[in-house]
Amino acid sequence: MSNSLFRKKSIKDLIDGPSKGNTLKKELGAFDLTMLGIGAIIGTGIFVLTGTGALTAGPALIISFVIAALACLFAALSYAEFASTVPVSGSVYTYTYLTLGEFIAFMIGWDLVLEYLLAVSAVSVGWSGYFQSLLAGFGLHIPTALTAAPGTIEGTTTYFNLPAFLIVMLITFLLSIGVKQSKRVNNIMVIIKIAVVLLFIVVAAGYVKPANWDPFMPFGFDGVFAAAALVFFAFIGFDAVASAAEETKNPKRDLPIGILSSLFVCTLLYVTVSAIMTGVVPFMQFEGVAHPISLPLQVSGQNWVAGVIDLGAILGMTTVMLVMLYGQTRVMFSMSRDGLMPPILSKVHKKYQTPYVATWFFGLIAGLLGAFISLDELAKLINIGTLSAFILVSVAVIVLRVKQPDLPRAFRCPAVPLVPILAILFCGFLILQLGAETWIRFAIWLVIGVVIYFAYSKKRSKLNQ
Fold it and tell me: Is pTM, for the whole model, over 0.70?
């Protein structure tokens, strides 16, 4: 029993396996992967969570961002080693199948469904709010009944969040017709939103008042750590770059570059933006503000830039949804190809060479979740799911170094086992900052995964044939 639960794939199986079955088209280079990472990372975190983070940590929010970034950096180094060594679709699911066995690989794949699917749904709701605000600026309004999920606006009858549903359907269509078309759209939107963030930095920097940074740490380290657990959401997404391994032209070189460079660029932007916004506006003034990046510009009388920031937020959230849905479909594609999920989910379109069935299936689910359900509390599950994945990939690097020390590695995570252990400790610490309700919901999700594995996946696994 235990042997079958922890049966493992060999590296040869992982690399050679796709050539014997469904394969994906190689379209991505280092620049595309970097844009993919930035597209996934810069979105809700910088445009929405910075305000909540400022209320939790005060001006010391910059330290919170650094702590969250360090947790991600240590995990990113482990991701980079695996992605360059085993350039196959599936991300951490694939890596754990290689090192820790099938059952744990299935559970982390099931865990990634939670991360990616809910991220798409949650961000679609935020996107809808910004989009409606933009339309209102032109005097256009969507019927109230179609502006939000049922019961989300007190005293108002709503049935369906139409903008949230439509944007997910548009992204689903884009992903279904090919990664080449998707990367072009993503690259353009990422360049624009980076320009928008830089515009904020240049304009708002002139209005900084150092007195607003005093006291720097009004809530002590408790506030800093609590904010770090919150703004960790702002870094979610770089791991989706690893899901693109099979569609990368030169994965051994380009994947580590894409993972690490996107994380570096985003950390630099986050720290700079949070320092400037708390320098322009006293942190307590972010109470109840839905557009925290716009507020410093409005206070400074730069309303035209505030309008541009809102447009950047819409583009930012669009790329987050695109990359997260992309990562979701690639993980499920890999699990299906391994026999752990129904075979139809790994069916590849003859013309576009994309897993189009999986793309539309999960696109529809994500769109309907965003349209019908309030995801305020469920969004916390995204953090616990991601942190769990980061911990497992760090464990997997240590295991593979011990079991196969001579395996050729294009990129080597430095200071093993120290760096992976630091990733485990940092991510474990952030998980402990999450509430009991989040843990209970996460446990329920995992129990559902266990039932699916023993009822369906275990017998149908390719390794069981």
Answer: yes
Q: What is the DSSP letter of 344?
A: G
CA 330/CA 350 separation, integer angstroms? 17
Which residues does residue 28 pair with via DSSP β-bridges, in sequence order? 248
- Structural domain of residue 46, as residue ranges? 2-19+30-464
Q: Are 102 and 420 in contact (CB under 8 A)?
A: no
DSSP 56-111: HHGGGHHHHHHHHHHHHHHHHHHHHHHHHHS--TTTHHHHHHHHT-HHHHHHHHHH
In a domain, 314, yes or no: yes
Count: domains in the chain: 1
Q: Cα separation of 172 and 151, whole Å?
A: 27
The tokens of 82 are what? Answer: 């695996």
Q: Does the pLDDT at position 380 exceed 80?
A: no
Q: What share of the chain is helix, strand, coil (3-state, %, to 5)?
A: 75, 0, 25
Q: The domain spanning residue 434 has which CATH number?
A: 1.20.1740.10
Buried residues in 322-336 as b, exposed as e (16+ CB within 10 A)? bbbbbbbbbbbbbbb
Assess contact for 1 and 455: CB atoms under 8 A: no
Q: Determine the angle formed by the axes of helices 380-403 and 61-85, rounding to 10 degrees.
A: 40
How confident is the model over 109-123, as pLDDT tens digits?
Answer: 998 888 888 889 988
Residue 245 carries which DSSP code? G
- Cβ atoms within 10 Å of 287's Cβ, excluding its own: 10
24 located within any domain: no
Note the pLDDT tens digit of each residue in 306-352. 778 878 888 888 988 988 898 889 889 989 989 999 999 989 888 87
Strand-pairing partners, residue 147, are 161
295 contacts: CB under 8 Å, gap ≥ 6:
51, 277, 281, 285, 286, 289
Please check whether residue 416 lies inside any domain of the structure: yes
Task: Specify if 434 maps to a domain.
Answer: yes
Could you give the CA distance from residue 371 to residue 380 in angstroms, rounded to a whole number? 18
CA distance 375 to 45: 16
3-state secondary structure of 411: coil
